[in-house]
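Figure-free illustration: sequence to structure, shown twice.
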Amino acid sequence: ALDVAYVRHTGAYQGAAEIFSDIFTRLMTWAAPRDLVGESSWILAVYHDNPSITEDDKLRVSACVDVPEDTAAEGDIGRMRLPGGPCAVARFELGTQDYPTAWVAVAGGWLPESGYEPDDRLPFERYPVGAATTSADTEVVDICIPVRPLRRY
């Protein structure tokens, strides 16, 4: 399990880099002066809804950083606990337009043949602090899909 502080956006976000920039800037502006960000930090984008079935104006995404359990939320900073458990993790180096293709590669390519299925926990992207990239226009991203063994009915 992981305790996180977050800033949430509700509404369309796909292809809108400025939305992610805004929520992560607000989160880091709060977290950095509190010494909550370091080399071992988990910086995440947590997806609460499936954009294939949820109306755009109801989509939710949270920019998160892991925090000690006793960290207080304040202002537009919320707190939640992400349950632990197994995840499919795929590391990519992505430009801003590459995210949908990477998600499809994991969820639509690897997962159906893996012997696993998504479970009820929230999927997320993890941005490893200090991970080296080959270009200034890309970033290292771990796409993390919580899974359980495939159930046979």
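We now fold a second protein in the same way, so the two outputs can be compared directly.
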Amino acid sequence: MRILLAEDGQSLGLALADGLRQLGYAVDWITDGTQVATALSDTDYAAAILDWNLPRRSGPAIIAGMRHRQDATPVLLLTARDGLSDRVAGLDAGADDYVVKPVHLDELAARLRALLWRADGQLEPAIRLGALEVLPAGRSATLAGTTLELTAREYALLETLVRHPGRAYSRDQLEDALYGWDQEVASNAVEVHLHHLRRKLGPGWVRPLGGIA
């Protein structure tokens, strides 16, 4: 699942980007507000984490622009401002949640998960599809009550697919969901992950369409 992280503080940005990647997210880390706005216009992100005070364009200004063009991407606003008026201003700009620095990665990840499942219209933090249950909090899945032994990439692929059951994905779309800008991707990486995921799920769960084997 691909996330945009906008944070101009080098140490915090690096720590959050690395931490989120270890949790299995594909992260595009950007430090400039104008570049963030462009990336959000050009790329389909599952969610965005935006610092308030970005160079050239602030987080609330970026969010207001997103909502004006009907972009409903979930946004978590990250800032050192902790006054009531600041929280109100951030939420009124269109942010879905608000986290005051310093922030612990565990809290940030929990809030991010909550944004994602609410954006999908889920009423509980588990995704169920027949006998398949996917648990984003633990990045785990069970099939008919049996735990599936999945790699981080296989889990990320599975979560991407079950969030929109029945949707057809191209290889490029799956690569975008699984890998950030700065990650090298082997030409057959998605096909390999799909092959292993199909083998672990069994027949009928993931069907190939067109050019994906």
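Summary for the second example: The longest helix spans residues 105-119.
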